[in-house]
Task: inverse folding
């Protein structure tokens, strides 16, 4: 057998994630591996925490990157906060709300599902009704930026509602962090998770999470053990907890963490608000071009995510053929529809380093060439 080194083709990633990885991040990840308890590595972990505080706009002590993809961040929130018998309101307006429901059920919780049409944001009125009908509810969980549809829900309003009923909130910010306004402390978010591969433009495989004091106290008051050893925060914190007493929990993905550190340094250099503005500007440019081609967005303008543009596949266009021609001829990846929207929409991502004028132009000209 003589299998050779793998050299991936050069692509432009404008799907639902991963996004194009910034060259500075790739360069950072190629630096020498050191030990996960090396004092220099521990200094880097402290910096990482400060950078995550900035990205999430929080001072939460319990803020760290879980050593696994966004799904593990999701599972970390549910596994630590939900105990058997707990009632959780899960808002579903796309694929990822459905995964939250699965998580609650696997933790032994009872789900009250609040459904909205795919492509619409979560409706706070429906959540208010569910809270009234289920006063025993402990947690309200929802997705900020639904990657499967491109809809943005109102975190601040939903969190306020949940707190009025004495509940905690769990927020999925996998696609929103770094791309859309997100203010964890100001909006009173109790537990939140994200992913490295979307608007942070890092490689996939890490999931920043943050828990406020109320969430920490809820975890401390648990009467049952967290059923996942790897995701049990009381154990993970022996490593990520800070101070001098860090102990081995698992071997950290050292080079991946160099990458996330660099991604967060880039975000800090650009400035959060500038990053949000850049995503919005690129979305406006893409939208103008798509609409000039006669293409339609499926999400109402007020709830549209700049970083995930979901457009209806025009009549007569062959979904798979268009996407594979874009890939073969232009090296351009756009996303297919997921779940109920499979075959009905394309998802064009403008995430992180991919949210650039060069990419907008490539996408518009390539799509136009393929569609006409
Ligand atoms: N939540 C949302 C909103 C997502 O878009 C994704 C991934 O696309 C996930 C969760 C899961 O993240 P990962 O694929 O990194 O496990």
Result:
């Amino acid at each position: 057998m003589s299998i050779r080194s793998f050299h991936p083709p050069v692509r432009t990633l404008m799907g639902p994630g991963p996004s194009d990885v910034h060259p500075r991040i790739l360069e950072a990840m190629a630096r020498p591996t050191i030990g996960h308890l090396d004092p220099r590595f521990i200094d880097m972990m402290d910096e990482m925490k400060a950078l995550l505080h900035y990205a999430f706009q929080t001072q939460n002590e319990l803020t760290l990157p879980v050593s696994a993809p966004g799904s593990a961040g999701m599972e970390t929130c549910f596994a630590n906060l939900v105990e058997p018998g707990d009632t959780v309101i899960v808002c579903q307006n796309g694929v990822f709300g459905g995964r939250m429901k699965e998580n609650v059920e696997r933790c032994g919780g009872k789900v009250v599902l609040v459904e909205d049409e795919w492509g619409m944001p979560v409706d706070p009125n429906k959540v208010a009704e569910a809270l009234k009908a289920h006063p025993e509810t402990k947690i309200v969980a929802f997705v900020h930026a639904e990657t499967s549809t491109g809809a943005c829900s109102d975190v601040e309003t939903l969190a306020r509602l949940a707190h009025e009923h004495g509940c905690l909130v769990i927020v999925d910010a996998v696609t929103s962090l770094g791309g859309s306004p997100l203010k964890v402390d100001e909006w009173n978010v109790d537990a939140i998770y994200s992913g490295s591969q979307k608007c942070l433009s890092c490689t996939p495989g890490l999931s920043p999470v943050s828990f406020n004091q109320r969430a920490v106290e809820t975890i401390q008051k648990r009467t049952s053990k967290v059923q996942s050893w790897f995701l049990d925060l009381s154990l993970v914190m022996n490593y990520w907890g800070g101070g001098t007493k860090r102990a081995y929990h698992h071997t950290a993905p050292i080079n991946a963490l160099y990458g996330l550190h660099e991604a967060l340094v880039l975000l800090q250099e650009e400035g959060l608000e500038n990053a949000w503005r850049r995503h919005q500007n690129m979305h406006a440019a893409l939208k103008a071009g798509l609409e000039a081609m006669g293409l339609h967005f499926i999400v109402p303008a007020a709830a549209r995510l700049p970083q995930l543009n979901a457009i209806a596949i025009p009549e007569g266009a062959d979904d798979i053929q268009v996407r594979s021609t874009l890939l073969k001829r232009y090296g351009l990846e756009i996303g297919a529809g997921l779940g109920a929207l499979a075959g009905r929409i394309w998802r064009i991502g403008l995430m992180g380093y991919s949210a650039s004028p060069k990419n907008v132009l490539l996408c518009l000209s390539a799509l136009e060439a393929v569609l006409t």
